[in-house]
Amino acid sequence: DQQVKQNSPSLSVQEGRISILNCDYTNSMFDYFLWYKKYPAEGPTFLISISSIKDKNEDGRFTVFLNKSAKHLSLHIVPSQPGDSAVYFCAASSSRNNNDMRFGAGTRLTVKP
Amino acid sequence: NAGVTQTPKFRVLKTGQSMTLLCAQDMNHEYMYWYRQDPGMGLRLIHYSVGEGTTAKGEVPDGYNVSRLKKQNFLLGLESAAPSQTSVYFCASTPATGYTEAFFGQGTRLTVV
Q1: What is the DSSP letter of B85?
Q2: Interface contact B101, partner A, CB < 8 A
Q3: Best residue in B6, B9, B37 to probe A by mutation, most A CBs within 10 Å?
């Protein structure tokens, strides 16, 4: 069963606009969440993370929001740039077994110039 | 900075053949992981290691074996390859337990025919 779900396989936005990528999880034991970015023929690279004790974490153009009651998190990219075009994976882990990180299926973001 | 290096990058196997995927990291990380990525499934954890000489099963361990004889290397073995093992394999490492970003290798694309 997929405990982390990214229901949008793809997203297309115009350069300069906001990109919002969504992620839902089912396991209430998850208490740490990460976003990874992946370019073709490369491994994923870490982008931003958030602990369950927070509801927002910001790093430059990237902000992650966590809604624990809805078991939902989102990644906002503002403003979007063509170089942001990549696949974005949401990941989650639990302090009970924080080596077992669960990933979503990914969302392919395309930022059009 | 090499980071995490996977060997080989591509491989085609016949059903029943065996092979070993090598992962090497030069960051002195304690924890290492093997994932597989399949379309629509995201990354799934196969096996992981919390230190030299230790290994543990992840979400999808069947058909794979691993060894961590040296801290910097983590080997993934397929004793008798099956078409269901056609996938892209990623190795990752973290300096400590899962509450830190993981560093990924560039991936190995394996096709079993």
Answers
A1: G
A2: yes
A3: B37
